[in-house]
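Weekly sync, protein design subgroup
Attendees: M.S., D.O., the rotation student, P.L. (late)

Item 1: inverse folding check
M.S. brought a backbone from last month's batch and wanted to see whether the design step gives back something sensible before we order anything. D.O. pointed out we never logged the input encoding, so this time it goes straight into the notes. Structure tokens as presented (604 positions):
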């Protein structure tokens, strides 16, 4: 295919505005897949995507379209997620694209993530085609949605806005025509040294790392000797091909094309997303500018559970991290849970998706500890000036007696919400110690910029925001800085034995209240035994709150038979002997115990 007839584009939108459905119609009308092969949300092939009805991973597919001008065009479509927790996937997709279709639901209008994804597309200097979807819906307000769209960008004011129904296929051919008419052909030199960007990757147990690539310069062939410009390692191209939407081998990928490369590399750390691939014989001199890697917002521990071994979890996590570059991990050791991993996530929904992918794709069961933010701890007269400890795990938090001060990570949170929910959103941010930095009106939407501590948004902030605004608000965050805070660690003892996996870091002014809520929650979450077990919350070596988990008692007097008081007392004495086990803790904690830490705001 001539470079002038190639178009690389992504579809961006708010969640549930019809991205995957439009991708289905494009594949159907370009005859990429037959009617027999077509199914709803064909590109959402992962089990977690089908379960939650959301796109988690970006997927690419090559289509061929015969335009009204009589020419055949190669359309490389990249479907993207819409949830805020997967904005990193959107960024990777846009880095490999030359244009984007901005899709807006006519029944809901321009929403927060619409604007957030639009900002990303503008950042990558992409040509943007605005499209209104679901015009066949009885609740559609096409005129109001078009008015909102035209105010988003100056160039939208005078241009025609396409109106389609991705569900029925109405006017989708207009989108197909606009793609080759408006989105520019890829630039690059076919005769130059090879430069290919790795924008995604996955692991195959037989073929090793399979990289999703976009060729910017030169051409790529099977059995070529290749090297990574960032990692400084070489390999041979085992196979190359395209997604159609399944993998289909081809002999060559030329300038501007999108496809896959089977590297044969078995070390999951060898190839990172954002790498530039070139040839060993004639290497390029400069790499493709890399997109900024995602920064984890919350951290949680993942530990093997049930029949899962540490080695099985280690292999599964390393392979999953290859496929999801916004997921970070490192080994950690817990006295209560043994060996596991401290993992970084973009948000709570991201954590949930990772946990489900480990179970469904790798058949690994994990136990998840309570998420927490990152802290910088400065010690008293024990470190050079300006040096600090970076704490992502409460277990590593030093003793309060040697701490000089603690700094917490803060983010700049950009919240876009309909103006009818403005007061509720501002109240929510104030409850989470947010500081208002800016406020901006955009039509019927208000964009609020807040400075928020990560610890306050790590647990349930986004869910609360969606609940208050009925799903119409979005949250876009970026790291701001570290600032001094007064933080203390709540340590938990069960049956007088410390359980380090339940340690949490909280603001001092809330510590007493949280400690009492914590022990009350644990009272009903910890598995009961034949003897009462004390649960204590300790702050700075002082017991702040305590409850007893009630015992499982066999009552000899309530079984329909006559029993003597002495018999009942004998049974109770025998049960009390189990208290001698209090010196050691062999309690197996279920996931519900750790979930109790996440739900301290709900009733016990």
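Designed sequence read out in the meeting:
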């Amino acid at each position: 295919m001539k470079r002038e007839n190639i178009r690389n584009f992504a579809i961006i939108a708010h969640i549930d505005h019809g991205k995957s459905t439009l991708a289905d119609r494009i594949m159907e009308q370009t005859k990429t897949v037959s009617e027999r092969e077509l199914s709803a949300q064909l590109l959402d092939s992962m089990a977690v995507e089908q379960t939650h009805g959301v796109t988690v991973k970006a997927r690419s597919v090559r289509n061929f379209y015969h335009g009204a001008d009589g020419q055949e065009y190669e359309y490389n479509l990249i479907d993207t997620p819409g949830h805020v927790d997967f904005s990193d996937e959107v960024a990777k997709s846009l880095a490999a694209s030359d244009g984007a279709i901005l899709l807006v639901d006519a029944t809901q209008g321009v929403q927060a993530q619409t604007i957030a994804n639009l900002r990303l597309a503008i950042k990558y200097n992409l040509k943007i085609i605005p499209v209104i979807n679901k015009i066949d819906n009885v609740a559609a307000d096409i005129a109001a949605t078009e008015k909102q769209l035209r105010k988003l960008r100056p160039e939208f004011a005078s241009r025609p806005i396409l109106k389609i129904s991705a569900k029925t296929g109405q006017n989708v051919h207009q989108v197909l025509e606009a793609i080759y008419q408006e989105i520019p052909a890829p630039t690059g030199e076919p005769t130059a040294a090879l430069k290919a960007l790795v924008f995604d990757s996955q692991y195959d147990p037989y073929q090793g790392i399979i990289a999703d690539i976009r060729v910017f310069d030169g051409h790529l062939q099977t059995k070529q000797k290749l090297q990574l410009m960032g990692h400084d390692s070489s390999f041979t191209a085992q196979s190359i091909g395209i997604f159609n939407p399944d993998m289909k081998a081809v002999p060559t990928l030329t300038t501007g094309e999108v496809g896959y490369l089977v590297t044969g590399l078995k070390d999951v750390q060898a190839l990172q997303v954002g790498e530039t691939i070139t040839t060993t014989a004639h290497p390029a001199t400069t790499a493709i500018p890399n997109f900024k890697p995602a920064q984890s917002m919350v951290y949680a521990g993942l530990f093997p559970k049930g029949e899962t071994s540490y080695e099985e979890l280690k292999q599964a996590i390393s392979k999953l991290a290859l496929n999801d570059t916004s997921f970070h991990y490192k080994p950690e050791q817990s006295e209560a849970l043994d060996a596991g991993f401290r993992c970084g996530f973009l948000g709570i929904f991201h954590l949930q998706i990772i946990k489900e992918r480990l179970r469904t794709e790798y058949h690994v069961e994990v136990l998840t500890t309570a998420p927490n933010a990152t802290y910088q701890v400065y010690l008293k007269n024990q470190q050079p000036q300006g040096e600090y400890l970076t704490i992502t795990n409460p277990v590593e938090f030093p003793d309060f007696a040697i701490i000089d001060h603690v700094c917490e990570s803060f983010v700049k949170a950009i919240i876009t919400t309909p103006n009818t929910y403005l007061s509720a959103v501002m109240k929510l941010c104030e409850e989470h110690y947010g500081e208002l930095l800016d406020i901006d009106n955009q039509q019927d939407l208000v964009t609020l910029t807040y400075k928020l501590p990560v610890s306050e948004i790590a647990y349930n902030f986004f869910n609360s925001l969606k609940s208050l605004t009925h799903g119409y608000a979005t949250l876009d965050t970026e790291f701001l800085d570290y600032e001094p805070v007064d933080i203390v660690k709540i340590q938990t003892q069960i049956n007088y034995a410390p359980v380090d996996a339940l340690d949490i870091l909280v603001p001092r002014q809330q510590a007493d209240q949280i400690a009492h809520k914590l022990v009350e929650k644990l009272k009903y979450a910890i598995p009961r035994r034949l003897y009462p077990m004390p649960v204590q919350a300790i702050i700075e070596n002082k017991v702040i709150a305590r409850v007893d988990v009630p015992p499982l008692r066999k009552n000899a007097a309530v079984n329909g038979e006559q029993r003597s008081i002495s018999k009942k007392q004998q049974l109770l004495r025998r049960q009390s002997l189990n208290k001698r086990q209090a010196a050691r803790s062999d309690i197996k904690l279920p996931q519900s115990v750790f979930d109790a830490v996440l739900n301290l705001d709900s009733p016990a």
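Discussion: The chain has 14 helices and 31 strands. The chain has five domains: 3-182, 195-279, 298-368, 375-485, 512-598.
Action: P.L. to compare against the previous round before Friday.
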